[in-house]
Amino acid sequence: MSSSQPTEINSPTEQFRILRTKGTEPPFTGAYDKHAPPSGTYTCAGCSSPLYRATHKFKSGCGWPAYFDSIPGAVVRHTDRTFGMERTEILCANCGGHLGHVFKGEG
DSSP assignment of the chain, as one string? Predict the structure, then answer.
């Protein structure tokens, strides 16, 4: 865990559910939604690969952390058409861990 991350983390069971089964946490409940350090690096909870710089983060108001950019080559994007909608799924390029979604009109 990098120095920019808060010390509280999800339980191992919850982390597995989100990273490996593409789960989500309720909006406005995660430790990183309002977390806004001036510097540092956010890393993957599954493999510790660097994903985003603190300076990439912005306040989206959606209840989940939002980033306008990533470290080059750190994430991959896939079209996700589940639940009757189209959105972009963001995955860790190293381990395939689910990092979240971008919806049309965002980012």
Answer: --TTS-S----HHHHHHHHHH---PPTT-STTSS---SS-EEE-TTT--EEEEGGGEE--SSSS-EES---TTSEEEEEE-GGGS-EEEEEETTT--EEEEEETT--
